[in-house]
Amino acid sequence: MKRRPEPELMEGEAQALAYAEADFSASNSLFMELLAQLNPGPLDGARALDIGCGPADIPRRFLSAYPRAHCDALDGSRAMLDRAEAMLAGRPGLAARCRLLHECIPSAQLPAQHYDLILSNSLLHHLHEPQVLWRTILDCARPGALVLVMDLTRPASAGWVEALVETYAANEPEVLRADFRHSLFAAFEPREVVAQLAEAGLDGLEVGVVSDRHLAVWGRLPA
User: Fold this and answer.
1) Which domain holds residue 61?
2) Counting beta carbons within 10 angstroms of the beta carbon of residue 182, is it exposed (0 to 12), middle (13 to 18) or buried (19 or more)?
């Protein structure tokens, strides 16, 4: 099935609110489980970058699990970061270790070779040019940095898309059902991601299907 790109940013307040209030606990928990399987260690003093943080549930989970780490959480949507700020306002211990950045890649002003860990969940399918993500990782990560990227994977048919929408979003507002549908059509297949990594010079990272609707990219960069 041919890919159908979607808008890169969730700028609408209604869409951001629906997204922030939706239950993504299963997929976000899966992301954290994948990170734990990579044995990152205690991450004492480590600096992580979450690219496309949305309402910052992954930074919240990450900083709760690794209380000696810090995280820069980047998103191009002001509406999403407003939700992230509201979440952090009630968690001063996490807020002290989380810096929210309202910027877009590839134009974001990020320090070169600075981060020990690069995270990204559900951003790749939004990008019209996926190489901007992989180039940002290469530019910002320290040698030997750990990388974990998770995203939707494109189903083989429109019928499969509708089956996934009914399975996982049957009781969600129509704005979320439509967004999930569009995202599945916009997602990449594993073989496409493998080709992207080869083009970027990141073919040392692994690619795998990790659920009926997700793929992941993981590994360490060369030291």
Assistant:
1) 13-220
2) middle
